[in-house]
Specification:
Layout: H1 2-10, H2 16-24, H3 34-53, H4 62-81, E1 89-90, E2 94-96, H5 107-118, E3 125-126, E4 131-132, H6 137-147, E5 151-155, H7 158-170, E6 174-178, E7 184-185, E8 189-190, H8 191-198, E9 201-205, H9 213-219, E10 224-230, H10 246-255, E11 260-266, E12 277-278, E13 281-282, H11 284-289, E14 294-298, E15 309-313, H12 315-323, H13 325-329, H14 334-346, H15 350-356, H16 358-364, H17 367-382, E16 389-400, E17 403-417, H18 423-431, E18 437-438, E19 440-442, E20 445-449, H19 458-482
Parallel strand pairs: 1-18, 2-16, 6-9, 6-10, 10-11, 11-14
Antiparallel strand pairs: 3-4, 5-15, 7-8, 12-13, 14-15, 16-17, 17-20, 19-20
The protein binds pyridoxal-5'-phosphate.
Pyridoxal-5'-phosphate binds at residues 157-159, 185, 189, 230-231, 233, 263, 265-266, 298, 309, 402.
Length: 483
Amino acid sequence: MAVENNSMGLRNLPAVHQVLGRIGADKLLQDIDHSQAVKIIQGYLEKVRSDLIEGKVNNQDKEQWLNDICSDLKNILLQRKERQFRRVINGTGVILHTNLGRAPLAEEALSAIVEVAQGYSNLEFDITSGKRGKRYDHVRTLLRELTGAEDALVVNNNAAAILLVLSSLAKNREVIISRGELVEIGGSFRVPDVMAQSGAIMIEVGTTNKTKLRDYQEAVTEATALLLKVHPSNYKVIGFTESVERSELVKWSHSQGIPVVEDLGSGVFFNQSGQGDFFGEPTVQKVVASNVDVVTFSGDKLLGGPQAGIIVGRKKLIDKIAQHPLTRALRVDKLTLAALEATLKLYAEPEKAKKGIPTLYSIYRSLDELEKRAQAVAKIVRDFDATWKIEVEAGNSQIGGGSLPELALPSRILRITSDHKSTYQLSETLRALKVPIIGRLHDKAFCIDMRTIGETEEKELCKMLQLAFEKMESCQKEGTNNG
Ligand SMILES: *Cc1c(COP(=O)(O)O)cnc(C)c1O
């Protein structure tokens, strides 16, 4: 009976040309590609047809079908006009948000990308000699000068860097690592898995909270290729803990002729004035100076550059790594190199770096400034719709990207609440806008942390909030009318 009913319903479904006629009249969709639109409409109608036959949707009259189908398809086609991968405004206060693309790039890096991408470049061409050159040479000197290392190589990301270092220096041999450093970073990167993939044999020593020099000493055999230290980026073991001082470990290891490799995770070139460290993190320079043989770190964490895995260290080892076939598979592209070189150049002058590299700029914004920016935005947004309450309150931003998990940077939050309206719905509406605003829902309030909102984004933020308020208001009206 139901099947018969539904196949009767098929006759009520509109034809492609009917839908096209109705949708084509829409001003916003006048410039849409005709053949693409037909394909999308056909696909959609087929889906409705099969849903109807399977009884997933109920039959309706002809006019109702046409209305519903056109309204859905209009939204689908409008969305198709926008690029799928696009900019969002980060109101989460997480500076290196992996899901939101980690580090925004400096102006200088952006222009370098545009310049190199627009035409041809000397990517692998030595302009002086007119002969073939190496892509890695464009950043090698800068990296050597900045870090004090003998040599440098850059690959796709830091995970690739570790895989490459282990594959080229330790395949079928033993790598000693402290149990306190067998970390998982962001779901898909686990040190033991990467180790297995590289063909190295992992020798775990010590315990989660304590590893002593003696533990390393007892694990050394003829087959030992290297000692690996991994920064436990996204967590910290506190309390009854012990680990071996880097310099002590290196000194002993070198006396045995065994190199030390360190995965620093987030590499910083920067120390806070008067300290050798950056919020307690050693700089790359410091780690290199303590004679670690190979150091790897990310380009798009605290460094504030493009996604890349940077490997610096002793020339003999870097040469060996560069010759491994995986280097070709993991190589960086020209856009990354352009952005990385431009970012590294900014580090020549620390004050320039602090202002020009957005990651550092965000970290160093003062509470006074954030308070001013938050008040300015709140003042504008309050005028839009009195049913929303806009307050400025104290909160904390995070570095993110698995860097400095314990560090909370005091910030100012735009707190949006309403007695009658849903902040959950507000967050959904804001995400559906042309420039999506990503914030945090906390205690029935929609919160926007001003630290990760650039001054140039403030106008847009206000505009999007106004649009969202209007959209919700008109939806509510429609709802009332229908009811
Ligand atoms: C983030 C991180 C990685 C992975 O770096 P990607 O550049 O994201 O590939 C590896 N090791 C440590 C310790 C990290 O913190």
